[in-house]
Specification:
Radius of gyration: 21 Å
Number of strands: 4
Strand order of the largest sheet: 2-1-3-4
Number of domains: 3
Strand content: 5-15%
Largest sheet: 4 strands, mixed
Oligomer: single chain
């Protein structure tokens, strides 16, 4: 985001956090905000009007009031008006911010049920499963297929197997990618979760599954180095042969056997 949009996002956040603090039904708030993003994405004229930097913020808030009053909860209306009233650098920044608030509402719902870690783990694992299965990936990302069909496929795969918040986010990522690849959508959702929870996320690749104790020790070790809280996502890849590779932020710590063998071969000029 450019400067004006960063300021707009910061200013609009007060409306969003206020809605959560006021006791908004977080699941309903997420649903309504996702629906509002869909409305804006589907109506270029409306989107331009709401994001028009030359219009007064109060005028844009009144436009939102006319359009959504009586159709969404009072809390959702406050958030929508708070976002619309700001001055955005681009239309996409406005709708992206609304989407992020919707995702954050889902994570807040998971936090209230003490399963936010579970949701992050499940969403990450689902993306990896999809990435590893070309046929499944094609079925879920086929924009020519009816939305309901793709949503039903996600439900059939995940219902009763994951937290309800995971199912909501997985379905949303499939039915409303908003021009992005599925993996990028999930990545953005996980980044929003990390931002809300004020933590960093590390992706750890190992030859065999890590135990819960292994993950806890690794998270603690990374937290001591990078500060704050670190959430660990794990990937099993037998090709690494042994050791682990850790990706956190822009850094990669590669301690795998295959990496060491590659280094040895290079040293010998092989």
């Amino acid at each position: 985001m450019q400067g004006p949009s960063r300021a707009a996002a910061a200013a609009s956040r007060e409306a969003f956090t206020g809605a959560l603090a006021a006791g908004a039904d977080r699941s309903r708030l997420a649903e309504e905000l996702f629906a509002a993003v869909d409305v804006l994405d589907g109506n270029a004229t409306l989107r331009r009007a709401v994001a028009d930097p030359s219009r007064e913020g109060s005028d844009k808030a009144q436009l939102i009031e006319r359009l959504f009053s009586g159709k969404v909860s009072a809390e959702a209306l406050v958030v929508l008006k708070g976002v619309a009233a700001q001055r955005w650098s681009s239309e996409r920044d406005l709708s992206d911010t609304l989407e992020a608030y919707a995702v954050e509402s889902v994570i807040a719902s998971a936090e209230a049920a003490d399963r936010a870690d579970r949701v992050e783990d499940e969403l990450f694992r689902f993306e990896r499963i999809v990435a590893a299965d070309p046929a499944l990936r094609a079925a879920l990302t086929d924009t020519q297929a009816p939305v309901d069909k793709r949503a039903d496929l996600v439900s059939s795969l995940l219902r009763d197997k994951v937290a309800p918040e995971t199912l909501v986010l997985a379905r949303q990522a499939v039915v409303a990618p908003r021009g992005r690849r599925f993996d990028r959508v999930v990545e953005s959702y996980l980044e929003t979760a990390s931002h809300r929870r004020e933590q960093q996320t590390a992706t750890v690749t190992s030859a065999v599954p890590l135990t819960d104790d292994d993950r806890a020790r690794l998270a603690a070790g990374l937290a001591s180095v990078y500060g704050g809280t670190v959430h660990v996502n794990t990937v099993v890849d037998p090709r690494v042969m042994g050791g682990v590779k850790v990706e956190i932020g822009d850094e990669v710590i590669d301690g795998t056997v295959i990496r060491k063998l590659d280094a040895a071969r290079r040293a010998m000029g092989a």
